[in-house]
Amino acid sequence: MTLDDTVAFPQQTPHSGRHFVPSHPAYQRKIFGRFKRRRRKRFMEGWYYRLTIPEENVSFAFIISIEDPGTDSKLKLSCIQVVGPGDSYLVQADRDDTKFWAHKTQQALGCNFRYFSDEVSKEMKLKTALTVEEWKENVESGFQILPQQLLGRVDGHDGSQGGVLPGQGEPGFCEFDFSVEPLCGWGSQKSTGGWLASYDVFEPHWQVTLADARATGSVVWNNKRYDFVDQPFYAEKNWGAALPSKWYWTQCNSFEGYDRLSVTAGGGVRKVPFGQSESLGMVGIHHNGTFYEAVPWANGYMDWNVSTWGFWNLTGRSISGDQPFDAEVTYELDPKEKPGLVFRAPTPDEGMVYFCRDTFEANVTLSLWHLEWNGEEFVRLLPPIIDKASSHQGGAEIGGGPWWSAWIKRSQLKPAIRTLLRLPFKLQRLRKKSDRKKNKSKT
After folding, report:
1. CB 132: neighbour CB atoms within 10 A?
2. Residue 336, CB-side half-sphere exposure with 13 Å CA sphere
3. 61, 90 contact by CB (below 8 A)
4. Which residues contact 381 (CB under 8 A, 6 or more apart)?
5. Residue 12: enclosing H or E segment and its boundaries?
6. Distance between CA 331 and CA 327 in Å, rounded?
7. What domains, with CATH codes, occur in the chain?
8. Could you read off the pLDDT of 156-205 as tens digits, one per residue?
């Protein structure tokens, strides 16, 4: 292993490491007798990476997933999907989950589908992270994701003739090799879903691991090569039984005229204890080193109006902390001109099947205001902090369903969950109050 699994990397967030026990041979000696203990219920863990190249008006998404590892499940799968220019699509997958490895304390993972020879395979199968040179020399197809380096050769197909396994679509090839410079993780490297994300309370869990970063390197997509330097990069992950039964998601970090501006917003129906569910949404904005987060468990809320396809209007407000704010972000496209790409996601009963629709070509506008208390209510201060920042490369998605009509809602937390999630904010206020009393007594 060439990467120390105990090293903390710049901008590392909670939950960057894996949440499953790999069945890869390199782990069996360390955790013999434990690697098959993992869940009787369904489990998946997925990683999403987005690269935007504004000069080419092109985006790539690298979507990796492991399902039911270390079990006898018929849905067990190691998979990578790549979304490319013009909503093109490529997938490569294998039922053999022993090829998939992942580190426990940082975002480092990989799966080598094929080696160049059987002799190489015997030599390499007990290894996890390789040097760049070693990986390129020995791996015919697969991927290796390290905290600041992404490598991959995807020899797959478009899935048009069936599922995700070999020979079920028109063949295609993608090769990627680029380094990543992190700019910000998530706020002050915090859990996207609050502190309860460390426990099996919600299904599924979600963590933004890089809200903003810059990538340098190359991608080859079906014989066309894209070389790039310091281009916008984004990363997140999910884990749990499956993705939400219904959800929306938006992201952009390539706004015109802004070098350090990133927005991520999402919401969906998630499971909570005792067989219940809740509709939850949030928005997070990073702007020149300041983090603006509107979440329902911290004296804030989020409203959304998401159409069946082509319109996402999201508003968030936070009145906690030292900088109360309002935010509004809108993503729009013509559904006839840009129908988006329908692609696969892990589902509870059928595994990896078509389950969501995605685009990288939405027109985005983002506005952000400070709020001030006027004695009766909070009002927006003018001029705005951000006044209609725009981009033509907004990432937007809807998934699950049903999507028979527009989904218009406000985040609603179950009272018990809200109380638990707000505990850190109450403790923080108590500490500040105690510090003020100590300072007064000293003076």
Report:
1. 14
2. 0
3. no
4. 369, 370, 371, 372
5. none
6. 14
7. 1-241 (no CATH), 243-412 (2.40.370)
8. 999 888 899 999 999 999 999 999 999 999 999 998 876 555 555 567 88
